Structure formats: structure tokens, C-alpha cells
Amino acid sequence: MDGIADMGGTEGWGRAQRPQPDEPVFPEPWHGRAFALSLLANRLAGGNLDSFRHALERLDRGAYLDDGYFGRWLNGAERILTENDLLASSAVDARARTLRGERVEEPPSPQPAAREARSAAPGSRREVQSAPAFAVGQRVRAKNLSPAGHTRLPRYVRGHTGVVTLVEPAFVFPDTNAHFRGEDPQYVYTVAFDSRELWGEDTEPFTLTIEMFESYLEEAG
Asked: Given this model, what pLDDT does residue 55 score?
């Protein structure tokens, strides 16, 4: 889906802020707790990395951007818990109001048993019997697709041509795994794109490399 998370190549965000060498992993104590809660929520819901990413990309602008990086993770955890009936939809707001000193009756939360992760095997690398469809040095085009669900195909490369520089092993396909429709493992290719191919001739010249799943690509004539 073309959600708020697909920011690559878009304008208006200002200069990227580089992290400082001595920057702590969790600048504030609640950041670490938000990270842990996110992992726990996804595990309780029987999710995987791709389903968690899909939860994040479905957040609205405020929940994704305005609340900061770890706020985004916390908002994603809340979405996962409520969508999987592990937490009442109004429970978070009620608890926040209670902590602010209001007299609010918190709704009861369902207490289902913890669910097993729905991934068939650990990790995401898989073996496939077929040969790779593309080879190093081959010109390929990113398909001009706009899937309704989760995808790792960035908008700014769709319809553009690049060159395969590396054929990587097969990995679980995020577009199906995020929705629990099977792993559909595919080869992954490192594809090099000229910046002027992506953003026009007046762009500063440089080469951008992206890892792309096989079904995202087609042969360029």
C-alpha cells in the first residue's frame, strides 16, 4: 500500500539528521519500554516482522510522524493488540485519562491464550528449486504496481530501469507474509539505479542500490 511509511524520494522533509556517535540506543527510559512492548504485542498476536511493518504503515500521519520513532512503535503495538482482540479499543485512552487523575472506568480486556507465531520456520532465508530469473549485469525494470496491501516496492522506483549487480538467496516474500497468505519465497536482487533515471536530469548524479524481490521486476527491453 502507498502509505505514510513510503517516504523515499518525497520532498519537504528537510535535511536528514545523522545520529551522534555516542547517542544511546534508548535516549529516554520509555523508549526501551515501548520497544519491548512492541515485540511482546506482536508475539502475543502471532505476528511476524512483515505484519508488524504493515501495522506501522497503516498509522495516520500523527501517530506515525508526530509521536517520534518510538512513539510510532508504541502506536503500532496498540494497533496490533486492539485488532487482534487482545485489548479493548478504548482501553489505552481510558488508562491515559486515569493516569492524568480523571475518574474513568477502564473497559475489561479479553484474555485469550498467547498465540504461536504463524511463521513455519525461523528466520526469513529459504531454499527454492527454481533458478533465478535475472542475472548480474542484466537490465531490469521495476514493475509499476500499487498493491492494496503490504509491499516493499518503493513508489519512487516503480516503472524505472536499473541493472542487477548481485543475485541474493531467496527470502520470505513480505507482501504475502504480512497477511499470512504463505511465505512465497523469492530470490532477491540488488539493483543499481541512476539517480537521473529516478528523479530527472537535473538531479545530482549518483547510483542508488535497492534490494528487490523477483516478482517486483521485469526484463527491460
From this structure: 94
